[in-house]
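User: Hey, quick favor. My workstation is busy. Could you predict this chain's structure for me?
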Amino acid sequence: MKRINWQRLATIGLCSSLVINAFSGVTAVAETVTSESSPTVASSTTQESTESSQETTETSREEGTQETEKQAEIPEVKTETTESVPESSNENDRQTSISPRWVPNDQVIYPRMIFGFTDETGKAFADENLTLSGTYYKLARHTATSQWRPYADRYPIVSSNAGGGQYRVAVNATIPMPYDFLTNLPAGYTHNLYAIEQLKIDNTLKYVDSIVAPPGSINRTRYSEQQTSEAAQFGNYVKQNLTQRDRIFSKNSANIFSLNSLALAPEITDVLTMLRTDSVERGPILVGFDGTTTYRETLNYVVTRKQVTEKFVDTNGVAITPPTGFTQNKKTPMTSNAFTFKQAGTLPDTYKASNGKTYKFKGWYKGKTKPNTLTTTKAPSYAVTYDGNDDLTVVYEEETVTTLYPSLDVNFVDEKGVGFTPALTFSGKYRVQRTSDRLYTDLYDLTSKSKGSGQYTLSLNNGTMPLSPELLRVYGNDKPINGTNRLNFSLDKLAINQQLKYVNSIELDTVKSVMKMYGYNYTSGSATIIDPNQVPTEYNLSAGNIALLGFDTDGGYFSKESSGVFNILMGYASDGGKPLITMNLFSGNPVNASKLVYTVTRKQVTENFVDTNGTKITPPTGFTQGNQIPMTSNTFKYTSARALPASYSVGGKTYIFQGWYKGKTKPNTLTTSTTPTYNTTFDGNDDMTAVYKEASISANLTMRGAVDVIDNGAAMEYWEVLLKNTGEAPLTSVKIKPTTDWAAGISTPTELFILGTGQNTKVRPITKEQWEAGFEIPLDSSLPVGGQLTINLLGTKVTGQPNQVLKAAVEVTGNFNKLTASDTVRIKDLDQETKEPTGEGFISVPTFNFGQVGVAGSTQQHSLKKAADYYGNGTRNPYLRIKKTQPNWSLTAQLSQPKSATDSLPTTTRLLLGTAAAASFTDYNQPTETKTPLGKTGIVNLTADNTATAVVANQQFTGSDVYQLDFTFANIKLEVPANQGMVGQQYQAAVTWNLVTGP
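Assistant: No problem, here it is.
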């Protein structure tokens, strides 16, 4: 059995707390040379070249042209140191035993220098290997005639190839120059010198026009007098200007070029300057060399070759703009004595010049005079004759050309009518086929130009197409165009070059397109194919022609084989017996009304929303069932415009997100990311299907007040309304209002204190009208599954009768079934404290106060005190109220010994309670609470020795869980034995009530 003892009433307060939870090496040596006064000579810089050479002696040929072949007689002059040089001797052989410096009475020099040859372009002349030869001789000036007369001796000049267009030229002998060279003279003569008599190029150069050196000067070396030994110092004297005789090779009838000194020259300038010896007083001067075996000087000559000039003229001989790739007056140099000219490139049969004229090839001829019959090969080639009649003249005849304008505007719009703007290019080969042998001839490549916003211009040959009688003869195999030899101009196909995997179809919009065919009459054999003044006849395209304007696809690329765009037919139809030319979508007018409009239907990603059975459902807010997103590229990646909600409510139903899948077939496992995204595959399996499960929504609502008992008229600290989400889906809306059970004695709340899962704590004021109409709780986010929301009602006052029970009841609605909850509060009793026990126990127990009593000499019984604040001056009875839950129960009581601070009453003291009226309660603690009398207990008298006295026997009273025993105020006595107690003492004792319960 369970035993509960009660001595006094204890009040326990319950409070709740909210816990709210981040040269290879060169060395230059300078030497100062003092120069005597000399005639002023223009100075220039000449490049020095020092080379060793080994030369082969050649026999001089007398092929050079002398300006005067007769030489004046000169007295015999004896030379003391002249050596005879055999013609077959080698230059190097002669130099191996001769010292290149002054030697007393045995002085020699080595005249030599480099001759360089470049062509007219500045490149080394390399058309052939040159051989230079000539004679070197000694002269003295005849005083009486002022002539330079030669001695009898001659020295051969030889050459060798130094590479790079340069040649070593040397006198193949040791040239004597003793100390008395300047003074050992015949009578009547002054001044001895050496010079080149003739230097010629032995090669026959028919193809060379001239050999000329630019104006310039040449270095000179001066030696002093009376020295026994002196090192060569090239260029230590002022330079000598070259004369025209030095600079220009003369050419004879045999096409031999040479430099020549004038016989019996009256002036020194008539004698070649290079390799000449001069003097100043007693000092020898060497021009272009220093007397040693080293080559010091280089003279450069430009070899200007004869040219073949290419000319382009019309039949009247007037110069015309040449074809592309050719140049008017282009010059081709001749490079040999057996040069054959070959024109670069192949001459076109026809071409259109920059002036808009079209020319037809007639032929070509060589030379200055046009022959009656031209040569008609397209790659002119012939052997030149070097006689000024080697130029090429190409003759073209201006054709009368009819110009057509194959140009067409083509617009592309998407399925919404907006310009389809991905950059497109188009291709196709335009060709002509003749029916006589079914031969195709390729003409032009289709070109396109974007105008923006999905608009393009298609054209052939930049929008112009020439037709001429000559072209028709070519196309028709030199046969007339008629019913048996017709011409069909067409594209082999019209293709969009870009892959368009994301496009489903490209369809011709026949309503918005303007499709015209233009017809012209023409006369076969006429110089003009179409009369330029003729107005074409317009025809509507046939269904067959329109069908050729569409596009087919292989799933990635779009094209149309044998497209009808720019189709021309000749010989297929006639108008009144005249042959007719028909043209699709263009004409002989640069401007025409034709245009094609195509609708581009892109492949779509369709967004579907279904339940777990695959049945379509209303989608979440912001989404549309069957919404289609067009693909925009070959690498299109679908991404949902927004995240799929974890749950949503619509039409009274709530759906919970399960996942999504791509394509037509639902997989076993769904993808659960909330923002679907994936690369499309363009294969019809690109739709997105979101799967939601219809959720069961449930919630639990409870309500409790801050206290169970309250003073009349006091404010309830709070009413806590607790909403818990016990379902499968979030709670998206919550509304609260009082039910009809809300007691009139409980006033309207003035504020709502709101907190909960996922919510910001907030306080909202509320009016009586809002409260009664229902107040929408502002949620920061949906209340998740398992979450809870606390709504504390603040500011209510409770007014009623003592011990009256008042109910506070609310209903809460939202995306769930309506819920109600309530709690009660009891108006505080005027006499006893009331408390709701936990489980079984005592709700209220009386306090017995007997006030002030006297000490008597006999046993006395004292009544309870009477006071307005104590049981209403005895008008109300003390009572005991209990709560039990088990069927078996009994109640006993016992009294402790009354004691004061210094004294105690005897244990024979008694508390006389008499009988108690028993009653039971139904609907306890509810406004409908009812008290039902059950009868009386036996007389209850308690002795102060803690002896337990039965009050209620087991199962004496049944049928309820709450019972009350009312003790009659007037019958309650305290019996005190005689002469007990002390004056001024306050005695207290405890009445212990014992509730025993059991099953």
